[in-house]
Amino acid sequence: MIISIPSILLSLGGKCLLSCALVLLQWNHICKSFLGVFSVSLAVVDTILTLFVTTLHMHADGYVFLLGLKLTWYHICLLVQILGQMCNALQWPVAVVAGLDHFLRVTRRLQPVTGRTRFIACLFVTGLLWYLAVLYVFLLSDFIPVMEGVYHTQIHQCWIIHTTQILQVSMFLLLTLCCAGLHAGCSTRFLKNPPLKDQSTDRSRAHSRRDVVHQTIHIFLKTWAPFLFFLATTLLLPVGIPAYLSLNIAWLCFLNSLLIAIVLCAVCPVSEVTQGLAAVPPDSFCEWTFQCIVSVC
Q1: What are 140-154's pLDDT values in tens digits?
Q2: What dihedral angle (degrees, nearest 10) is formed by the CA atoms of 285, 288, 289, 294?
Q3: Is the pLDDT of residue 237 over 60?
Q4: Cβ 12 vs Cβ 49: under 8 Å
Q5: Phi/psi at 139 (nearest 5 deg)?
Q6: pLDDT (tens digit per residue) in 243-257
Q7: What element of type H or E holds 4?
Q8: How far apart are CA 175 and CA 168, in angstroms?
Q9: Phi and psi for 83 in degrees, rounded to 5?
Q10: DSSP label at residue 242
Q11: How many other C-beta atoms lie within 10 A of the C-beta of residue 166?
Q12: What is the pLDDT of residue 144?
């Protein structure tokens, strides 16, 4: 797709404002998980890029010197294209690492780890992902910058790739959540018949787990149903989403809630969930509280 440079600057500015607002909203606990630390790093990267390309674009002569290098309006398009490639490359790794982080937290396998140690580990993994994304874009991918063959002061638009990674990640995770819900709903049909006492106990546990899964899905949809509709509408538009906007903190907040829902449905013991004993990762949007179920309380 072709986007004018003023439109790119405006969208980057809007992305930065939204990122700063969401970081401040979650400031009390944003650095307690991998997604929180990565969100802060993404806000910093977006802010630096926005300030740089805005400063470069404001020069009427179309170039500035930085560390002995002459940077022109060509570099605005180049940097935005590189950021788009990196955002595409980071979608799946961020989702996988965040899911693993939530799984370890909910199952209490990170219980001995202190807050400082967890923060340092998240900071290291975040830096490693950014480093690997840079290596991938410049060494392993088939990325070739697309530039207009005109003088740099006559560049008024850039070639920008659109993203399909959001659709892939969201569809896969939503299908996973649906499968967890269906499995919980159908679990009572596959219970063993003998003995009668064990059958009654298993059936009670299956009903309890089904109720927890239904509550989890209800909490998630109650909060994020408008965003799901917006995401579906945006992704189905012919224009698509520019890649440099695909990785944003609003999307990461949605991803955080979705991964929490999947982990709670898949691995968390029912008794811990209903009694509030589960180590649920921090979430500023969904309130993960469950009604106590008689059979497990």
Answers
A1: 888 887 766 665 556
A2: 150
A3: yes
A4: yes
A5: -115, -35
A6: 899 899 999 999 999
A7: strand 2-4
A8: 11
A9: -60, -40
A10: B
A11: 24
A12: 81
Residues 6+ apart with CB under 8 A from 172: none
CB 155: neighbour CB atoms within 10 A?
A: 18
Cβ–Cβ < 8 Å for 248, 15: yes
CA distances (Å), 290 to each of 89, 275, 296, in order? Answer: 36, 8, 12
Within 8 A by CB and 6+ apart from 174, the residues are 258
Helices and strands (H, E) in the chain, number of each type: 9, 4
Q: Note whether 88 and 243 are within 8 A (CB).
A: yes
d(CA 158, CA 138) in angstroms, rounded, equals: 20
Whether 259 and 173 have beta carbons less than 8 Å apart is answered as: yes
CA 157 distance to own-chain centroid: 29
- 231's CB contacts (< 8 A; 6+ apart) are 166, 170, 254
The bridge status of strand 63-66 relative to strand 69-72 is antiparallel
> Of all helices (H) and strands (E), which one includes residue 38?
helix 34-58
Amino acid at 26: Q
Strand, coil or helix: what is 200? helix
What is the pLDDT at residue 112? Answer: 59
Identify the three-state secondary structure at position 63.
strand
Q: Is residue 95 predicted with pLDDT exceeding 80?
A: yes
Question: Is 76's pLDDT higher than 80?
Answer: yes
Q: Which of 93-97, 170-174, 273-277 has the lowest mean pLDDT?
A: 273-277
d(CA 150, CA 144): 18
- Give the whole-angstrom CA distance, residue 265 versus residue 270: 9
Residues 6 or more apart in contact with residue 52 via CB below 8 angstroms = 79
